[in-house]
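Re: the request from the purification team.
They wanted to know what the chain is likely to look like in 3D before they choose a buffer screen. I agreed to run a prediction and write the result into the notebook, where they can find it.
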Amino acid sequence: MRIIKSATFTLFVFGFAGWIYIANNAVHHPETLSMGLTHFAKWPREDTFGAVCFAVSFISFFVWNYLRYKKK
């Protein structure tokens, strides 16, 4: 159970960090959101990456809190 708690918390932190990066990029360089995340591949786009990061962060935070407060 500890490994699942650790993994979900890690996914939450890094997913949230990815979303913050894309949100900051959307404020300062909105024209790049439809571009690829990297020049090596056309997929994922920056906006897709931001949406996936937000979803991963949200779900991971929910699971982490559920496991944290779950009665033993």
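For the purification team: The chain is about 70% helix and 10% strand.
Please add any questions underneath this entry.
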